[in-house]
Amino acid sequence: MRPAAITTSQRPARRTRSLCRDLECALPDAVYIQRGTKNLRDTVLEALENDAEVLLYVSEAKGNPARLTLVDLSELPPRERLHFTLGGVKLQREFPHDEKRVNVEGTLAITTSKRPVSGHVKVAEALADLLGVEFVPRTGPLERVLEDALADALLVIESHPTHLGTLTFYRGDRKVGPSLFYRRFELRDRRFRL
């Protein structure tokens, strides 16, 4: 997996910070960079100092995570590659399990539900390409996908009754979160404004 950094817009609300901490735990070897009042240029420089090649930038509206932009930091100037408009999130603490935060260690793979809706494979392939992880088409249970990919955790693109799709992290066949419900997905190739 390509090294990733996670950050937010300035002065993020508590729920947005919690989502970023959850993403740090769910993505192996990712680092959360607290934004606070720093400008975006300094935040990107800090991500580069941490050897990050991908930046997950979470911005918010009305105190809730509203957008997730994935930025390729291996190019100069950095380029926006993927953009999700979020309809909501479910944090790790909102999943039923004993541990407070579930840290994923090892390798990550990406798959879809057994019968993916139109566009889910495109989302999965784009995420796998940018994050530098394997995309495994799903033909059976999640345990088989883990075995095929020799992975420890999965990011699964699934259907949602009111949104376009869901990005959910699994360990084995158990949802460990977070889940991000997205209403819109865009492939982009434009300069990331610092």
Describe the structure.
By secondary structure, this protein is an alpha/beta fold. It is globular, with a radius of gyration of 16 Å. A 10-stranded mixed beta sheet has the order 2-1-3-4-5-10-9-8-6-7, with helices on both faces. The mean pLDDT is 93. A hairpin with a 2-residue loop joins strand 3 (54-61) and strand 4. 41% of the residues are buried. 22% of the residues lie in helices and 38% in strands. The protein is built from 4 helices and 10 strands. The protein has one domain (4-191): Rossmann fold (3-Layer(aba) Sandwich).
Q: TL;DR?
A:
This protein is of the alpha/beta class.
Write the topology of this structure.
Elements: E1 4-8, H1 14-26, E2 31-32, H2 40-49, E3 54-61, E4 64-72, E5 79-90, E6 108-112, H3 120-131, E7 134-135, H4 142-149, E8 153-158, E9 165-171, E10 174-191
Parallel strand pairs: 1-2, 1-3, 6-7, 6-8
Antiparallel strand pairs: 3-4, 4-5, 5-10, 8-9, 9-10
